[in-house]
Design a protein that fits this description.
By secondary structure, chain A is of the alpha+beta class. In chain A, 25% of the residues lie in helices and 35% in strands. Strand 2 of chain A pairs antiparallel with strand 2 of chain B, so a sheet runs across the interface.
């Protein structure tokens, strides 16, 4: 069975910490977004490719579930699993874990859209990108689907 | 009929803009989080109250739907509607709009938990906070529920 793809290691930065003395909810999204950029690098949609072609990724939706607090300077590692993809879109699951303890700190589910910035307009993934995406998606196909994937936010379910 | 509660006006800051030339997906969460802080002020859970009592709010979940791009320096206004609340939690809907054009740029749904930081542990809202929350919640009860509220992220629904 395949593993999730390791994307990024980081430490909780001073500007990410809020009045509760822990990483602020909004900055989890910043950290997840930086991790997703490395997934885009993996499928070939890196900075050089964006500049050469005008193709990029816009985020349509992001959900974050906060599981554990994490504090200034603590090491975090983010992993991803592609849940679904089609000709224009990727639905991806990210897991942020404490690098040393392995505890899952938060998860994020994201819906990403390929965009031709000459519009900007939604566009099919260029074939070389689609091929790399399919390779990673195929490797992740045997991973279990996280229990919370696809679920919305409701009071009664928490 | 009541209106949504206006929380915060801001402008898109340079550090919020990414390689696509627009507000980065992660920084929408930062902007929404700053707006939510003002809702907490409205219900009395402000900085002075937090320091005096040790009670605060932790975020359990956040979902963002990205509807329109917004660029450096553009003015944004954020409004909120309380969807549900119980003795410990608030489920709130936020709408970010272009201040001048009125276009909805993004929405966020958040699940917030009252925490006694002496644990930290989940706690009932102190009665004075619960009363102010109920007043706002009652005023919002006549607002229509947003169509996407409570829905998860799925490829086929976009």
């Amino acid at each position: 069975m395949s593993d999730m793809t390791h994307l990024r290691d980081a430490r909780v930065l001073p500007e990410w910490v809020d009045y509760n003395g822990h990483m602020n909810d909004g900055y989890f999204a910043v950290a997840f977004s930086k991790a997703t950029d490395l997934l885009l690098d993996e499928i070939g949609l890196d900075d050089a490719y964006r500049k050469a072609t005008g193709f990029t990724i816009y985020t349509l939706g992001m959900q974050i579930r906060y599981l554990q607090e994490v504090k200034l300077g603590e090491p975090i590692s983010t992993f991803c699993q592609i849940l679904e993809h089609d000709s224009k879109r990727i639905r991806v699951w990210l897991s942020m874990r404490h690098t040393e303890q392995g505890t899952e700190l938060a998860t994020s589910e994201q819906l990403l859209l390929c965009v031709d910035q000459s519009g900007p307009k939604a566009a099919n993934f260029p074939s070389e990108i689609a091929a790399r995406l399919a390779t990673i998606g195929d490797a992740h196909a045997s991973l279990p689907i996280p229990e919370d994937a696809g679920k919305g936010i409701r009071l009664k379910r928490v």
